Amino acid sequence: MDHAAEAQRTDLMTITRHVLNEQGRHPESRGDFTILLSHIVLGCKFVASAVNKAGLAKLIGLAGETNVQGEEQKKLDVLSNEVFVKALVSSGRTCVLVSEENEEAIFVDPALRGKYCVCFDPLDGSSNIDCGVSIGTIFGIYMIKDKDNVTLGDVLQPGTDMLAAGYCMYGSSCTLVLSTGNGVNGFTLDPSLGEFILTHPNIKVPKKGKIYSVNEGNAKNWDAPTAKYVEKCKFPQDGSSPKSLRYIGSMVADIHRTLLYGGIFLYPADQKSPNGKLRVLYEVFPMSFLMEQAGGQAFTGKQRALELAPTKLHERSPIFLGSYDDVEEIKALYASEASAV
């Protein structure tokens, strides 16, 4: 990269400009979606700033409450949740919100309602805050048919109905990856400008990868197809090189690496968690949407992940997502087990 030339670049594609360009492709658009996204971006900037100052501001450590998943809440979790709820409500474009930190859906005051539903995990991987590992925000956006009579049933839509999804990773740099259903783009926060700049246009996940990502500590509880697949990664029978294992334990960071470098991310069901561990509405769906938009696949062990029809807000599901060919392999293992039964 020619850094001198980069420093002189003045024609910067900011995330706002990018979204406005997308809006221009839809003449019927009234700009509501653009306004909603700008509020999400503001929330991400606020949390990025808080994460950077966490140690200094004594935000690290437990807030003393436990969230609906039974996880002890970190102060940053609480702060991030408040930031995103307020940013989304004040946009005037949402009618219902689903957060990992709130047991019930948040129905917006009728005077401030718009036509969108946002499902989000305000700070994924927060157990990693104290050791400086990348953490992130995940979100998915849906349209609600009747904002004035919105019910819980309107929130429980399959992932195929999702309009947009993204995540913001707070790590060595602050990166926001977004898809509005027309490919995947990555933006990096330039702290000197306070703007997200397009740095990864049109991300495509490699068709096959050299990395597998899974918590091998759960291996004794895995089902046969998962165990067989991981065995194949480590001891390939076709003369190819073994895959490398990379597991951060922060979903945003693991998926970000998978999107850029290829490979497969697995969080299977096991005897301890028969329905898997990751939540459908604000972890599985947004990440599956992004992976498919980048040319990869997402599979639950039974079906295409985006075709799941959730029945509860905090429902969980197993998930295998990543490079197209790698997910094909695990699908074949599940199919052969099903046919053997």
From TrEMBL:
One of its GO terms (cellular component) is cytosol. It catalyses: beta-D-fructose 1,6-bisphosphate + H2O = beta-D-fructose 6-phosphate + phosphate. Coiled coil: none annotated. GO terms for molecular function: fructose 1,6-bisphosphate 1-phosphatase activity; metal ion binding. Its EC number is 3.1.3.11. One of its GO terms (biological process) is fructose 1,6-bisphosphate metabolic process. It comes from the Eukaryota. Residues 13-201 form the Fructose-1-6-bisphosphatase class I N-terminal domain. Its cofactor is Mg(2+). It holds the Pfam family FBPase. Its main location: cytoplasm. NCBIfam families: PRK09293.1-1, PRK09293.1-3. Belongs to the FBPase class 1 family. This is Fructose-1,6-bisphosphatase, cytosolic. It comes from Digitaria exilis.
